[in-house]
Amino acid sequence: MNNRILIVDSDEKSRIRTATILHQYGYDVHQAREATKALRDARRLRPVLTLIDMEMTRGMNAYELAKIVESDRISSCLFMSTRYDSALVAQMETLRLYAYVQKPIQPLSLIQVIEFSLSMSQKLMALEEKVEDLESSLEGRRKMDRLKGLLMEKKGMTEPEAYRLIRKRSMDNGEKIEVTVEQMLDSILK
């Protein structure tokens, strides 16, 4: 199982302290002190979690980095902060998973938030995959219905006859029915 965590914090003392805590709990920890390097490292390492200091002083801000990391599906992000920033928290609500840990870091609190975040992230990813599968299935169904409608209109077939023709062609060609539907739609619409 991937247990890599990337810590992004421009404060070296804080970054090392956080890394030490995570090492003690068995995490494979990597560190970056600025956003550009963090993004390169995240793409290369594919961490399970990216822990980002909200007060980063170099490069892009914490929210911009998290937005890229999450939109590229590299990892989930968790924030660290010495203070509550309502504007950044409002921005964080647009992210897939948003939470933050108060600095100075308390080991038990950090581990609890990380474990909760990882659990929620896995559930969210499973739901996103399910939604993608359903959308793909629905799109396939729409194409099938469109092809059947065109066959009924152009060839005077009934719906069951159109479906049997599509299914037979798929079986004869030894390909998935979705591929056959795409090919037949392309040839009819040309």
Give a quick rundown of the structure:
The protein contains seven helices and five strands; from the N terminus they run βαβαβαβαβααα.
Q: How many helices does DSSP assign? A: 7
Q: Can you tell me the residue ranges where pLDDT is under 50 for at least 5 consecutive residues?
A: none
Portion in strands: 5-15%
Q: How are the strands of the largest sheet arranged? A: 2-1-3-4-5
CATH class of the largest domain: Alpha Beta
SSE ordering: EHEHEHEHEHHH
- Decide which structural class fits the backbone: alpha/beta
Number of beta strands: 5
Separation of the first and last Cα atoms? 49 Å
In angstroms, what is the radius of gyration?
A: 25 Å
Helix content: 55-70%
CATH H-level homologous superfamily name of the largest domain: Response regulator
Largest beta-sheet characterization: 5 strands, parallel
Domain tally: 2
In one word, what is the shape? elongated
Q: Mean pLDDT, nearest integer? A: 88
The CATH architecture of the largest domain would be 3-Layer(aba) Sandwich
CATH topology grouping of the largest domain: Rossmann fold
Outline the fold blueprint.
Layout (H helix, E strand, L loop, with lengths): L3 E5 L3 H13 L3 E5 L2 H11 L3 E5 L8 H10 L4 E6 L4 H7 L7 E3 L4 H49 L3 H15 L3 H13 L1
Features:
single chain; 190 residues; alpha/beta; Rossmann fold; Arc Repressor Mutant, subunit A; 2 domains; 7 helices; 5 strands
Overview of this structure, please?
The protein is α/β, with parallel strands linked by helices. It has two domains: 4-105, Rossmann fold (3-Layer(aba) Sandwich), CATH 3.40.50.2300; 131-189, Arc Repressor Mutant, subunit A (Orthogonal Bundle), CATH 1.10.10. It has helices at residues 12-24, 35-45, 62-71, 86-92, 107-155, 159-173, 177-189, and strands spanning 4-8, 28-32, 49-53, 76-81, 100-102. It has a five-stranded parallel beta sheet, with helices on both faces. It is elongated, with a radius of gyration of 25 Å.
